Amino acid sequence: MFFTVSAGLAIPMLILIIPNSSQGCWDTTLLTGLKTRVSSTIVKILTYIRGKATPTNIALAVLVLLVGYAAWAFFEHSPAANAFCATCHVMEPFYKEFQESPHRQFNCHVCHVFDLETARGTIRELYLTITGQAPDPEELRLEARLHIEDECLQCHRREDLAKLPLHKIHLEVAEIADTCTFCHSSHLLKPHNSDCTQCHDLERMLEKHKGYHRYAFAITILEEQNVTQNLPPEVLEIIKEVAGPSVECYRCHGETATWNVPLAPECYAGALEGKTCLDCHKDLPEIDISDNRCIECHRK
């Protein structure tokens, strides 16, 4: 009975660490070895049951198979699998970041491959967590940045990435960003303003670009500028007279309307709170603002 339960519980654990072969993340020798071990364990259980085919043993064998299959299906296909990872409080900040990334539709194990070495490391990490010796999450974040590019290139080709405008200027022209993690974190992929200002001096950039960038960062960084302070008083009066005193810039100048405008309009979308570098420095569709916005206020 003890052998049946012990060996049976080992099967689901082994099943959990056998990933979908379509992910292409496995070493063939290791995969073959694991499958051989699993098969050997199953044969031993079946041999034992054949000699002691009691109702209890048969029921336990069926239960083990059902639990193993359910666990494999959950981790392999369920959208809730990522939420399961978040049940550990140490992983909570990483889980929240991942939910805001373009990769949020994928399960964690697409990048965090469950292999034999990972399983051993996980057991050790669990022990350290229980005994209060777990490393600081920020230390884990820094360590991950050393290896994350290998995971990125499992799906993304460097040649394709280099064609994107921002990547091209940083990778080929400036040759300053030699790894993905120079600008991207492992879970929240969109760079922060702080990532840009590692190389781009904020004050020099604001001075160089005058109105546009000064007001783009006015609220979120400098916190000292009034969005409308450089607009001529007569222009403000016309706006208030036509559209009312509470009109906001984006009512006419939405974030997709910044494509074909001069570099220094203080009232465009860059002045809205919360804008970051990438809200403007990206490929935007060109639209004709007169077709979409003007008629709302200027009917007759």
Can you describe what's shown?
The chain has 300 residues and is an all-alpha fold. It has three domains: 2-77; 152-196, no CATH class; 202-297, no CATH class. The protein has helices at 2-16, 28-51, 55-77, 81-85, 92-99, 116-130, 137-145, 148-155, 158-161, 165-173, 193-196, 202-209, 211-216, 218-222, 233-243, 277-280, 289-292, 294-297. α1 packs antiparallel against α2 (28-51) and α1 (2-16) packs parallel to α3. It is elongated, with a radius of gyration of 28 Å.
The tally of beta strands, per DSSP, is 0
> What is the first-to-last residue Cα distance?
88 Å
The helix/strand class is mainly alpha
- Rg on CA atoms, Å: 28 Å
Strand content: under 5%
Number of H/I helices: 18
Q: Give the overall shape, derived from the CA principal axes.
A: elongated
Overall mean pLDDT stands at 62
The run of helices and strands is HHHHHHHHHHHHHHHHHH
List low-confidence stretches.
1-31, 210-229, 255-274
Number of self-contained structural domains: 3
Helix content: 55-70%
Biggest sheet features: none
Pick out its properties.
300 residues; mainly alpha; 18 helices; single chain
SSE order and pairing:
Elements: H1 2-16, H2 28-51, H3 55-77, H4 81-85, H5 92-99, H6 116-130, H7 137-145, H8 148-155, H9 158-161, H10 165-173, H11 193-196, H12 202-209, H13 211-216, H14 218-222, H15 233-243, H16 277-280, H17 289-292, H18 294-297
